[in-house]
Amino acid sequence: MINIEEEFLSLPISIEARNIARTFASQQPFSEVAERVKHNTLAVLVTRCYLEMMGIATNLETSDSWNPIVQMCADVADLEIAGLDKKLECRSLQLGESTCYVPPEVWEDRLGYVVVRFEENLRSATLLGFVSKVSTEFIALNRLEPIENLCVAIAALRESNQQNSGSTEAIVSLSNWLKNLFESRWQEIENLLDSKQSQYAYRTKEISKSLLNNLANSQEIRRGILFELGVTTPKCLLALITTISPKGQNEIDIRLSLYPISEAFLPELIELVVLDDAGNEFLKGQARSIDNYINIQFSGRIGERFSVRVSLDDNSLTENFTI
């Protein structure tokens, strides 16, 4: 049950959330750190609950607050917003406190700071508001904007990112592929490698054979791009293959495949992610050390838009599509 008292939003803290917080706390060697981790974890989970109610997806697993080692070494309570690669900082406040502590290590690289006040029994919490920036260790409560403004700020940032992306990145039209009209970057598999990459020619032959073995029907259309990703030198050379085929009158079957070119196997933990038009993740594949490709399959209707993101560590490639 949700209560709105005065101008603040109060939410119950679920048993599951309390159990997660206790588990994280129990992994810490010192009682002071354990208490901090417990409150940080609950602040993150309460904020996540609110954002989910508002239809905003988050990525807990990619947040530092979900890493036991980082929890021990840093006072961090971050929550990544899906599709933005930006994080909120979720700071906790106890009853009777009039200012909220924000450690200097989280003053940068945040889209905002949410303040969450807990009841003594930790069975409910109140979202007091948020600020977009901090430059001191303590936030006075009268500085906070209403929590509803956080959703407005996230929507504005998402729209800004999409506008900036649209001005610099081409959108791949899969419907045009059905008419044999292709973007110049997207090549037939056999033509992906240029003369400087001829040492990898055997890999494209292997990939072509693999794709033919997975051929679903004779109407499939397939194109690919090459790109480099990673922090090593030389970087890992990869191929993103998009395969489509018509499905009924207004639908298309889509298969996305990620292959290594310069190595026999994909880098461990590399991710292939499909994002909807709002930037929310709806499909994801992650490579193990023994994987030599990732496949993701789905269907879409004519006119729908989606994006594909390949990410490794802090490096990523994003391609935008319309069906």
Summarize the structure.
With 323 residues, the protein is an alpha+beta fold. 24% of the residues lie in helices and 35% in strands. It has two domains: 163 residues, no CATH class; 154 residues, Immunoglobulin-like.
Features:
323 residues; Immunoglobulin-like; 7-stranded mixed beta sheet; 6 helices; alpha+beta; 2 domains
Report what the structure shows.
This protein is α+β, with helices and mostly antiparallel strands. It has 2 domains: 163 residues, no CATH class; 154 residues, Immunoglobulin-like. Helix 1 runs antiparallel to helix 2. The two termini are 41 Å apart. The N terminus is likely disordered. It comes from Pseudanabaena frigida. This is DUF1822 domain-containing protein. It holds the Pfam family DUF1822.
> Which ranges are low-confidence, i.e. pLDDT below 50, for 5 or more consecutive residues?
1-5
Number of domains: 2
How would a textbook summarize the main sheet? 7 strands, mixed
By DSSP, the count of extended strands is 18
The largest beta-sheet arranges its strands as 1-2-8-7-5-4-3
| Main structural class | alpha+beta
Computed Rg? 23 Å
Organism: Pseudanabaena frigida
Protein name: DUF1822 domain-containing protein
InterPro entries: DUF1822 (IPR014951)
Question: Strands, helices and their partners?
Answer:
Elements: E1 3-5, E2 8-12, H1 15-26, H2 31-53, E3 58-59, H3 68-73, E4 78-81, E5 86-93, E6 99-101, E7 112-118, E8 124-131, E9 138-140, H4 148-168, E10 171-173, H5 174-177, H6 201-213, E11 221-229, E12 236-247, E13 251-260, E14 271-275, E15 281-286, E16 294-301, E17 305-312, E18 315-322
Helix pairs in contact: 1-2
Protein name: DUF1822 domain-containing protein
InterPro entries: DUF1822
